[in-house]
Amino acid sequence: IQQRRADGIPAGPEVANVTIKLRITLTLLFVGLICLRMPDIVLHGRFWAEEGKEFFAAAWRLPAGRMLFRPYGGYLNLVANAGAIGACSLVSVERAPYVTIGLALLFQTCPAILILSSGASWLRSRWAIVAALLILATPPASEEVWLQTLHSQFHLAVCAGLILAMPAHSGRRLNAFRLSLLVLGALSGPACIVLLPFFALRAMIEKSQARLWQTLALLAGSALQIGLFLSVQHGRSYHIDSSVLASVMLVRHLFVPLMGYHAAVPLADWIHRRYAAGAIPWSAVMLSCASFAIWITADQGIAP
């Protein structure tokens, strides 16, 4: 007889076979794979761009309390601020980059922890879990957002998307973990805030108290970010035509992941030449729109 969880979905034998030992093993393998893909950074350390010259330098000058809530670039990045404070106060200057690398690795592992602890219907199979972890750990052209705290906000945005796609009901500790990720994500950048309307919509559709708490957590973090820290920064705003945006999404989110960086370059160059000649590559635009429309439609069929 299948047991039923709090969300009403029967827990099949695949879920029962994902033991705590297996979850720990898969988490360690996930961390190891991330480190193996960027061995020079793990061995020698590094600050990435503003992580050193702006955040670490500011943490060296300012008191910790002031540094923690110091906005940069028009918004508060709480993870990057905390990483800079830790790098200044916990170790020597030579070892300071390892603090930010370690903190970034922690938040980069959070999506994997959500997957391994979710019990969602689309993650009942061990193979589905392994595939989901590999998708997170093996994307091409990911160096800019890996193992540095500036862009931990994007890994927290992935966490928010996973939380939205998973059943809201879970254990008390897991619920607290999810709520903390939502608040922290909103206080580390604008990416999570974009998902707020979808959380609110799903809370209304499901009429779930757990989903309502998730929406309120994201709303609280978003309200603090927008009300206290968010500002317009001249030189950091971008105006992009809708057809160009569709072409960018096609290259970055379909060509590169599915074909690899080198195979995608000729197609990206062709699109660029078309725009440089004053023409719109309508075939690329339509392919992008059709692909994401199919993706969204398919997702409705597997949503829990």
Task: Give an account of the 3D structure.
By secondary structure, the protein is mostly helical. It is built from 15 helices and two strands. It has helices at 13-17, 20-37, 39-44, 50-61, 64-68, 78-89, 96-117, 126-137, 152-165, 172-186, 196-206, 209-229, 242-259, 261-276, 282-302; strands at residues 3-4, 10-11. The protein starts with a strand and ends with a helix.
Keywords:
disordered N terminus; 304 residues
Describe the protein's topology:
Layout: E1 3-4, E2 10-11, H1 13-17, H2 20-37, H3 39-44, H4 50-61, H5 64-68, H6 78-89, H7 96-117, H8 126-137, H9 152-165, H10 172-186, H11 196-206, H12 209-229, H13 242-259, H14 261-276, H15 282-302
Antiparallel strand pairs: 1-2
Helix pairs in contact: 2-7, 2-8, 4-6, 6-7, 7-8, 7-9, 9-10, 10-12, 11-12, 13-14, 13-15
Summarize the structure.
This protein has 304 residues and is an all-alpha fold. The chain has helices at 13-17, 20-37, 39-44, 50-61, 64-68, 78-89, 96-117, 126-137, 152-165, 172-186, 196-206, 209-229, 242-259, 261-276, 282-302, and strands at 3-4, 10-11.
